[in-house]
Amino acid sequence: MPGVRLSVYVVAMTHQTGPGGGPTPDRAPAAPSDTVTPAPPPTSPPDPDAALSLRGLWKRFGQKIAVRALDLDVPVGSFYGLVGPNGAGKTTTLSMATGLLRPDGGTVHVRGTDLWAHPDQAKATLGILPDGVRLFDRLTGLQLVTYAGLLRGMDRDTVAERAQSLLVAMDLAADAHTYVVDYSAGMTKKIALASAMIHAPRTLVLDEPFEAVDPVSAANIRDILADYVAGGGTVIVSSHVMDLVQRMCDHVAIVGAGQVLAAGTIDEVRGEQTLEDRFVDLVGGRTRAEGLEWLRTS
């Protein structure tokens, strides 16, 4: 495989860059305070037993506060859904929680390990499917998954065995030698998920994993993830589909305006309502379609 691509990918995986293009420091700096008051320091320590423990996460872009003093604990072995309207801060939160984006304040602990103090140790236990994932699409599907395994320091025999198993599980075996650039959107999502799972991570963080995936493939992916959780893994998934989260997940957090509005088991959060109704009650924004009488056909 091309050595230059490997070098570029290694740099992208190990050294995130700040706004000026320089390397991100190991620990996140304090939030800027020129026009926006920073979040107060966390009032409770992180949970050392949680798969993921976020405390006082804070991020802004210019004058827009994307995430504001967000706290969240994801239990080990849970299938955790993160839901919220567009612009709620879900992707920003997951990006900071996995080391892809530097927070302005707050802490992230992965099974008790400070992500920003010990990034290599913490990231080694994570499998990540980020939003808008960009892949080396001039590799074949098999080459891409193999590539991901070798980057994780795995031996070639183990990588080869696992890559074949993942391609079969994702229904991509027939397209193993097809270039990723020629994959459909759903196939691209599945090969990216296979790449995230090749090293058998303890926690999977998946941002909209079912977007553009056909129903049959989505059902297969749900089965794979359910088996993964049954085997002791933890899955954190963001989605806009309330019914999917309600059926698939055992825990959920509803995020709005950069904060957690409710979190807990599915039953605790929804109460006597459906998850969708509870979601709408918390985030608001429902409007009546008035003034569109002209759309009526009779």
UniProtKB/TrEMBL annotation:
<dbReference type="GO" id="GO:0046677">
    <property type="term" value="P:response to antibiotic"/>
</dbReference>
<dbReference type="GO" id="GO:0005524">
    <property type="term" value="F:ATP binding"/>
</dbReference>
<keyword id="KW-0067">ATP-binding</keyword>
<feature type="domain" description="ABC transporter">
    <location>
        <begin position="52"/>
        <end position="282"/>
    </location>
</feature>
<dbReference type="InterPro" id="IPR003439">
    <property type="entry name" value="ABC_transporter-like_ATP-bd"/>
</dbReference>
<protein>
    <submittedName>
        <fullName>ABC-2 type transport system ATP-binding protein</fullName>
    </submittedName>
</protein>
<dbReference type="Pfam" id="PF00005">
    <property type="entry name" value="ABC_tran"/>
</dbReference>
<dbReference type="GO" id="GO:0016887">
    <property type="term" value="F:ATP hydrolysis activity"/>
</dbReference>
<keyword id="KW-0813">Transport</keyword>
<feature type="region of interest" description="Disordered">
    <location>
        <begin position="15"/>
        <end position="48"/>
    </location>
</feature>
<dbReference type="InterPro" id="IPR050763">
    <property type="entry name" value="ABC_transporter_ATP-binding"/>
</dbReference>
<keyword id="KW-0547">Nucleotide-binding</keyword>
<keyword id="KW-0046">Antibiotic resistance</keyword>
<feature type="compositionally biased region" description="Pro residues">
    <location>
        <begin position="38"/>
        <end position="48"/>
    </location>
</feature>
<dbReference type="GO" id="GO:0005886">
    <property type="term" value="C:plasma membrane"/>
</dbReference>
<dbReference type="InterPro" id="IPR003593">
    <property type="entry name" value="AAA+_ATPase"/>
</dbReference>
<dbReference type="InterPro" id="IPR027417">
    <property type="entry name" value="P-loop_NTPase"/>
</dbReference>
<feature type="compositionally biased region" description="Low complexity">
    <location>
        <begin position="24"/>
        <end position="37"/>
    </location>
</feature>
